[in-house]
Design brief:
GyrI-like, Multidrug-efflux Transporter 1 Regulator Bmrr, Chain A, AraC_E-bd, AraC effector-binding domain-containing protein, globular, alpha+beta, Reg_factor_effector_dom_sf
C-alpha cells in the first residue's frame, strides 16, 4: 500500500558512498539482483566505517544512453569529508528544487506499481521527470516487508 498523493519538495545535496552496477533493462527482475548485490557489497565494505553514515540507505538510478539499461547505485549518505574504503566511491547528488516524491509502504516486489502511480501523477500535472530516480529506504528493517517504507524520488525538469 502506498500513499495516494505526490509531494513536490526541495531535496538538499547529498554525498553517497556507493557501489555501482548495471541492469541490462529497466525491469525490476533485472534491477533487483543488481541493487541487492550492490547493498551487500557496500555493507561489507562499510562495516568498519558506520560512523561515516549520516542517513538511511539510498538507491540511485540513471538511464544509460541509447536505451542500454540502467546504472544502479547502492548508497549510504556519508559526511562530506568522509574517506571511503577501497571498493566504494563517492557520488555527489545535487540539490533538487522540485523533486516529486511518493511514499511506498510495502514489499519491494510491489514498488513498480508505485513508480507507475508517480509517473502518471507527474504527467497529469504537466511535469516531466529527468532520467534519474532515487529510493530512500526510510524504514526497511521489519522482517515483514509489508511494513517497509520507501520514498521514491524523481527530479522534475524545468517547464
Amino acid at each position: 500500500m502506498s500513499q495516494t498523493t505526490i509531494e513536490i519538495k526541495h531535496v538538499p545535496a547529498l554525498r553517497l558512498a556507493v557501489v555501482r552496477g548495471r541492469a541490462p533493462e529497466i525491469d525490476s527482475a533485472e534491477i533487483s539482483p543488481v541493487i541487492q548485490h550492490g547493498f551487500a557489497t557496500l555493507g561489507q565494505a562499510m562495516a568498519d566505517h558506520r560512523d561515516l553514515v549520516v542517513g538511511p540507505p539510498v538507491a540511485y538510478y540513471e538511464d544509460l544512453p541509447d536505451g542500454a539499461g540502467l546504472e544502479c547505485c547502492a548508497g549510504l549518505p556519508v559526511r562530506a569529508d568522509a574517506e571511503l574504503p577501497d571498493g566504494v566511491e563517492a557520488l555527489d547528488l545535487p540539490a533538487v528544487e522540485r523533486m516529486a516524491t511518493y511514499l511506498h509502504v510495502g514489499a519491494m516486489d510491489s514498488i513498480s506499481a508505485a513508480y507507475q502511480e508517480l509517473g502518471t501523477g507527474i504527467a497529469q500535472a504537466g511535469d516531466r521527470p529527468d532520467n534519474t530516480s532515487r529510493e530512500v529506504y526510510i524504514d526497511c528493517d521489519a522482517p515483514d516487508q509489508a511494513q517497509w517504507i520507501t520514498e521514491i524520488q524523481m527530479p522534475l525538469v524545468d517547464r
